Amino acid sequence: MATEAVTASPVKVSALNSRYHKAGLGVFAVIVLAHWAEHIAQAIQIWVLGWPIPEARGVLGVPFPWLVKSEWMHYGYALLMLIGLIIFRKGFTGGSRTWWNTALVIQIWHHFEHLLLLSQALSGSNLLGRPVPTSIIQLLVPRVELHLFYNTIVFIPMVIAMVRHLRPRESERAAMVCGCARPAHAHGW
Fold first, then answer.
1. What is the rounded distance in angstroms from the CA atom of residue 126 to the CA atom of residue 174?
2. Angstrom distance (rounded) from CA 166 to CA 161
3. Per the domain annotation, does 102 fall within a domain?
4. What does the alpha-carbon distance between residue 35 and residue 150 come to, in Å, rounded to a whole number?
5. Which stretches of the chain are DSSP H helices?
6. Higher confidence at residue 35 or residue 12?
7. How many separate domains does the chain show?
8. Backbone angles phi and psi of 151, in degrees to 5
9. In a domain, 184, yes or no
10. Confidence category of residue 10, pLDDT binned at 50, 70, 90
């Protein structure tokens, strides 16, 4: 029975990079956009509405303040993002894969920073004796700005990868195993 579970898993991942690639990417994109929108909402709350940082918790953090304070939630999203970038990677070819890999490399670092934050929260021992869990780059850039930046620099190459994947060059189209590409004769969006 354990062997069946192990052999079924690779089949599902391969299907996510072939017949279910477009649908899987759509779900993944919605998750990424929702998280990025939370960071944008928090930025608007701080810089446009003038809310104090502890009160600026994005959309979900206003009714559920514990979400913003939970390092587990932040780490879980960073891990989900990393897993998504890894799982869907094989479905990309050519230039779209280069852009996807760029997003993946940045997310590996972003994940490491969240792992460091979670480790500090769990151990109660913060980096350089700081009063709160602190990531490495957070020593130079405040947390709100840093995580808005991280999510932006992962999001941009991810979007470029998806657009290039939907509109591949002919050489890339031939290597694709999914049905994501628009027909070669389609023009415009």
1. 51
2. 9
3. yes
4. 12
5. 2-16, 21-47, 65-69, 71-87, 94-123, 143-166, 170-175
6. 35
7. 1
8. -65, -35
9. no
10. low
Number of Cβ within 10 Å of residue 45's Cβ equals 21
Residue type, 28: F
Q: What is the DSSP letter of 52?
A: -
Residue 32: which of 88, 98, 91, 95 has the closest Cα? Answer: 88
| Domain, as residue range, for 95 | 2-175
Nearest to 99, CA basis, from 40, 158, 22, 168 = 158
State how far Cα 33 lies from the chain centre: 9
Task: Give the span between the Cα atoms of 38 and 44, in whole angstroms.
Answer: 10
Between CA 124 and CA 128 the distance in angstroms is 12
pLDDT tops 60 at residue 9: no
- Tens of pLDDT, residue by residue over 61-108, are 888 888 888 899 899 999 999 999 999 999 999 999 999 999 999 999
pTM above 0.70, yes or no: yes
Amino acid type, 90: K
Does residue 182 form part of some domain? no
- pLDDT tens track for 151-183: 999 999 999 999 999 999 888 888 998 889 887
pLDDT reading at 8 higher than 50:
no
Residue at 180 is within a domain: no
Sign of dihedral through CA atoms 66, 59, 111, 28?
positive
**Tokens 């230039």 sit on residue:** 95
Q: Which of 160, 166, 171, 163 is nearest to 181 (CA)?
A: 166
